[in-house]
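worker-03 picked up job from queue 'complexes'. Input manifest follows; three sequence lines, order preserved.
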Amino acid sequence: MKKMVGSLVLSAAVLGVAGCAGDSSSGSSDGTELNFWVFGATNYEELAAQYMEENPDVSIKVNFSEMGDLHNNLFTAVSSNSGAPDVTMVEVSQIAKFLDAQDRFYNLYDYGAEDVKGDYLEWKWNIAENTDGDYLLGLPTDIGPSVMFYRKDVFEEAGLPTEPEEVQPLVTDWEGFKEVAETVHSETGKVMLDTPETMFAAIRDQAPEQYFNTDDELIINESPYVREAYDTTAEMIKAGLIGKNEMWTPEWGNAMAEGSSGALLAPSWMVASIKGNAPDAEGDWGIVQMPEKAGNWGGSYIAIPKESKHPEEAYEFVEWLVAPERQLQSFNDSGMFPSAPAVYSEESFLNTSDEYFGGLNTAEIFAEAAETVEPIYMGKNYSIVHDELMTALINVASEGKDPDKEWDEAVKRITSQLDRQ
Amino acid sequence: MSKVISKVSLYAVLFIGAFLSIFPFYWMFVMATNHNSVINRVPPALIPGPELVNNFQNVLSNIDFFGAIGNSLIVSSVTTLGVLFLCSLAGFAFAKFHFKGKNLLFGLLLITMMVPPQLGLIPQYYIITKLGWLSDLRAVIVPGLIDAFGIFWMRQYISSNVPDELMDSAKIDGCSHVRVYWNIVVPIILPAFATLAIIKFMYMWNDFLWPLVVLRDESVHTIQIALRGLIDAYVKDNGMILSGTFWATIPLVLIFLLFNKLFISSLTQGAVKS
Amino acid sequence: MSADAYASKKWTEKRKESVSGLLFISPFFILFAIFGLFPMLFSFYLGFQRWNGLGEMEFVGFQNFAFVIEDPIFWKALYNTIIMGALGTFPQLIVAIFLAFALNSALVKFQSAFRAAFFLPYVTSTVAVAIIFGVMFSNQDFGLINVFLNLVGLDSVSWQTNEWGVKIAVAVMVFWRWLGYNTIIYLAGMQGIPNDLYEAATIDGATVWQKIRFITIPMLRPIIIFTVFLSTIGALQLFTEPLIFLGGGLRQEGITVVLYLWREAFSNMAFGTASASAIILFLIIIVFAAVNSFVVNKAFK
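worker-03 finished. Artifact:
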């Protein structure tokens, strides 16, 4: 029982309810306690432990929740000035929303962030800045250059080559990818991808614009790119090349373990999920570059809510946590691709080979993908649009619904939700 | 002959009912002891496997299971004790005292029993944030102390079980009202305490919506909120998820089986008598 | 106080009683005022404000109500709630009557063991029920229910995305958790029905069905009204089962009114529209309660 209940005057007075000590957050130990909210597959628990060892006066409590929950909780917490942690991850698609609540987070420029600016990719850094460039919401963690993971065992069963050097030429563009998918499907009966989302995201992330323009106006009906990603995905669903799982469900995780699909289009941070969900599939996975061009999917920042009483200590920890050296560690442990270019030229980074992926030099592959990544404006209501489009695609996949009608329905739901923001 | 048939069909109905009631528990145990890969295949596992310990270790690496059980225990028992006290005191007043506004206040109480709790959800949340109680167990305990049914129940019980003569004679002896409550009323209404305690404890233990809204931090999660966290873990493992669910469910099931008569009568008589 | 000394003893006694009474109820009513009454009333204020929790509140008249009423998802949520509630409740109450009747039969041995078995699901938390049945109702071919369907020659159902699949799965969760509870309540009621009524009916050659129809149900009338009322109110507040079953995505097939309200508030940060939908839910429950008692009363006349 980490937290005892504060005294309950009424009942305690008469019934003598025992055991009502004070708040533990006000601290029995003399050091600083930092609450740290994280989501996804990171190695931050280990890094926090390491930090505490080096700084015995600081204790860090890492608190994991699901990504959507974390951002909802964070927003309600900062908006009510109650219940926010000292340090929190913020995903790139949520940054714009929290930049709106600037006054609820410390400006990291006030704590010396300027000094480390040069260590990080410029585009990554700029996303967390306000338009005037004098306020910084968070320090960058990883970026998500996307690649194509594929199952060697499934490819072999389909009579396809299995080594990356031979697979790569087959999937230089989406036409080639489709052909491979058709071969996998006709030879093994398996799908190429087990969820529509990864296909959709892969094409979407190659485009110069996504759901909103920089004035935060919805552009999915005017701009061709998202619609193209949607239509291509729907087409492949209809052709039986894409399965009906939703990402992050037990079915999805299990499909990964079973190797029931041929490939997985995903960013580097997916590595930890792959290893976690399919621990027995060591050696079964290969990695090649994404057809046509890599995009950036995800990646995060670390911010310090105003509620924290220890901004200096928190900032020190954050700066340490995302320093190039630790980013290298995070990459090795969890596949979080560094946003600090200094890492790219480090010997130990370039020479990593991952036994799980058959001894591939994963760093090199992701680094090559990262080179083509360009920053894209996401907007503060990104997740509303994304969730509804995913619902539409899942409807097409699992209910066989008409893609055009589903698109219109989704747009209707999106505009109705945007109206009340 | 027809008597035999009706007897057989009678038992058939009862056994099917009992089987369907119990099977999910058995199946949960089967899942909790099997590896995810055994669960996710055709035909699925139907007998327990060897992964009991492993699955539970995975639970422990994903959520603070015992911490969450501890939070649930604190929330449920403190609220229950508080409600027993507050409701018996108020129920006593409503049953035996005459005072101004009594009927009005009691009527107000009955009306609020009819109002869905969701109506006040957002302002309640707002109050909690103003008090700075977000992610603090008090956010669940203090509002949990309000129990209109409890007062109603206590009033009924005291009205019909505490004789006026006993009270009058106590007063003649010079007992203060507090003494009357403590020395005379409380011993008589112990059975009502048991009933209300079971109802309230179960309610608080199983409550989900309100704790979900106000208990944001993992360190204050109750077991129900923590179980939801298992579904959101980034490694998707049904064996692990059902292991957590199984171990969270079993304590209450065992207590129920031990005291099932008391439980059943408590949880239903409240309903029947009101 | 000195004035009291001159008053009759009876009067001070009365006054003391009055003070004690108010004192005894005050701890409860103070809490109630802060955490019960005030929030309910404040909801009506918030329903007319535009507020995202961050900035200032802004009075917008009936705009929030218009948003909700013009939102097809709200109507979908209401429709879902009613369908899932009806599917989970009415078959359940009917089966409960039969189960209770069987349990009440003089022939039955091990009555208390059966009672405990039927009641067991009620001890399980809603979250646990939703998790267990969520895994059973998996979309995949290896989901327990789909395996069973395949076994009897039917196709697998995509339970979590199919319009009726979601509703049936959620209704089954409600059915399973509450069946035993209502059975025991009916049983308690049936034990109050004099046995000679049944004996007389047996002598007259009545069938089991006739006994239930003409003796049990009329005698149980108040209890049936009560359980229908309680189940209806409970069904309108469905939240946990669909949330756990559908996960964060909250697909439209399973969104309920309370889920809609919850999402408006804590994921869309539209506290005004959320309050407006809470008020609308409140009005709907009143209407249902009224219709309910009207229909039930009529049906038993």
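worker-03 released lock.
The interface with chain B takes residues 1-6, 8, 10-11, 14-15, 17, 23, 35, 40-41, 61, 63-66, 69, 73, 76-77, 80-83, 85, 248-254, 257-258, 272-273, 276-277 of chain A (CB under 8 Å).
Residues 382-399 of chain A form the longest helix (18 residues).
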